[in-house]
Amino acid sequence: MKRAITITVCALLLAGAAYADVELNTVALTEITTTNEAGQEVTNRVEAGKVVPGDEVIYTITFANHGTEPAADVVITNPIPEHMVFTKVEESPRGAKVSISADGGSRYDAPRNLTVTDAKGQTRPAKASDFTHVRWTFQNPLEPGAEGSVSFRAQLQ
Amino acid sequence: MRLVSRLFLVAAFSLLAVTCAFAGGTPAGTDITSQATINYTITGTGHTGLSNVVTTSVAEVLDLSLVWQDAAAVAVQPGAVGQALSFRLTNTGNGSDAFNLAGQSTLAGDDFDPILRNIHLDTNGNGRFDPGIDELYIPGGNDPVLAADAFTLLFLLNDIPPSTTVNQLGASTLSAASNTGVGVPGTVISGAGENGLDAVVGANGGRLDSQGSYRIMALSAQVAILKSAVVADPFGGSQPVAGATITYQLSVIATGTGTTNDVVVSDAIPLNTTYNPGTLMLNGTPFTDALDGDSGDVGGTTTGAITVDIGDVAVGGPGQTITFTVTID
Predict the structure, then answer these.
(1) CA angle B84-B86-B90, nearest 5°?
(2) What are the boundaries of each domain within chain B?
(3) Residue of A nearest to B16 (CA)
(4) Which among A53, A57, A74 has the least Cβ separation from residue B38?
(5) Are strands B83-91 and B64-68 parallel, antiparallel or unpaired?
(6) Is B16 strand, coil or helix?
(7) What is the longest distance spanned by two Cα atoms in chain A?
(8) What are the structural domain ranges in chain A?
């Protein structure tokens, strides 16, 4: 009897996994430049456990379709973390369009098309420090077993 | 439903990101979190997924600025004691830190070495050194503690050697260093920061020097005039009666130190008297009364007064004596 229940639970878990389809994982890295014995500068990326104001962090989001069906209309969105200012998009998969929001995620567009309205009601072009979200819109479906990553850089204020 | 509210929270936090600004940087101990969202469709059905939350914590950066505040070299006199130079120490790091201080007055490149006395804190916070009120700094005893972005005034006191001469410059340096740590910028001092956070040595290595200076100025020399009058009446006495002659003598001497330049003495001819022409003299040498090439005149520069330009008067130099006579009407 006990064994039968265990088997049932496992079956349900398997069904759940098949349904969870696209998995997303985020890491935060910083670059450390050191000089090696030959006197050359070597840049390594390490996990950004501790940062200080002025440090740049590279946020890398990996995705993988573990499902059995292609995932269409894929959109990955990442808010610019608090105390951080967006510096640039580091990595974009082929066929993915990058857009930015400067209003908390209501409107996404190319940075040059974004504006913000200040307290006096004046509208001006959005600056990097106004950016609130970065978004990748995939043109092509993500086939079963496909994986990749997107990344952006931001600087701690 | 739960998913929707979490998404909303993520959006709300990101809005805060653009409204918060910290002059000295994000405070030490702040956790920076990031989480990505994915939306997609499978066979026409929409799905939303979230990544893990990645957390990065802000370490304490050790940084400071130290700036000499006096607008120019502080004017002092030879032998003066406890002369203050003002400095402003700012914690430009992102956490609270204490700073140790030291002075150094035997420096190259100046004309004399001030004699280092001590350092005082701006205890009453008025930005000015107040003897007896502003606390004496004791290394390790009352090291100034500053919150991120906070500043304080410090006073570096020196005595001025008596052997100095006018216009000489003497420099003195104040040093401030983070008590948490100094070293090569970027050095991580594990657990040394506020609340046991890691501390990172900032761009200026956690310590700074700032140099101020003193300049010897002449004590503003002063000129004293002693005036005396001698009356000779027509009857061989000294009664101030009509027809009596009064001889005025003005002795001009310099006091203090240095030289007073371009001294011009004027003295009004008293009412009810008449100046006796040709009697205005400097040190016994007569002037013409007219306003002309010599240094004295009567009524020319100032109506009803004698005027003598005696030029520079040096302390210790010979006194200058002006005389003239009047007759009582």
Answers:
(1) 150
(2) 2-58, 61-216, 222-328
(3) A82
(4) A74
(5) antiparallel
(6) helix
(7) 72
(8) 21-156
Look up the CATH number of domain A21-156: 2.60.40
- From CA A23, how far away is CA A141, in angstroms rounded? 15
Question: Do the domains spanning B61-216 and B222-328 agree at the CATH topology level?
Answer: yes
Work out the minimum CA distance from B68 to partner chain A, whole angstroms. Answer: 26
Q: Which residues contact B24 (CB under 8 A, 6 or more apart)?
A: A53, B63, B91, B92, B93, B94, B148, B149
Which residues of chain B are within 8 Å of residue A53 when distances are taken between CB atoms?
22, 24-26, 58, 61, 94
How far is Cα of residue B206 from the mean position of the Cα atoms in its chain? 26
Q: What angle do CA A137, A139, A144 make, to 5 degrees?
A: 100
The phi and psi torsions of B268 (rounded to 5 degrees) equal -70, 140
Residues whose CB falls within 8 Å of the CB of residue A109, separated by 6 or more in sequence, listed in order: A99, A100, A101
Kindly give the pairing relationship between strand B60-62 and strand B199-201: parallel
At the fourth CATH level, which superfamily is domain B61-216? Immunoglobulins (2.60.40.10)
End-to-end, the C-alpha distance of chain A in Å comes to 60
Residues of B in contact with A72 (CB under 8 A): 40-42
Q: Which residues pair with B101 in a beta bridge?
A: B176
Q: What pLDDT tens digit does each residue of chain B (329 aa) get?
A: 343 333 333 333 333 333 333 346 899 989 999 999 999 999 889 999 999 999 999 999 999 999 999 999 999 989 999 999 999 999 999 999 999 999 999 999 999 999 999 999 999 999 999 988 999 999 999 999 999 999 999 999 999 999 999 999 999 999 999 999 999 988 889 888 888 888 999 888 999 999 999 999 876 667 778 888 899 998 888 888 899 999 999 988 876 666 777 889 999 998 899 999 999 999 999 999 999 989 999 999 999 999 999 888 877 777 789 999 999 99
Q: Which of B9, B113, B156, B39 is nearest to A104 (CA)?
A: B9
Contact with chain A for residue B21, Cβ under 8 A:
yes
Rg (CA), chain B: 37
Please name the fold of domain B222-328.
Immunoglobulin-like (2.60.40)
Task: State how beta strands B74-76 and B207-216 pair.
Answer: parallel
Quickly tell me which residue has 């496992």 as its tokens: A10
Amino acid code (one letter) for A132:
T
CA closest to A56 among chain B residues? B56
Q: What's the full length of chain A, in residues?
A: 157
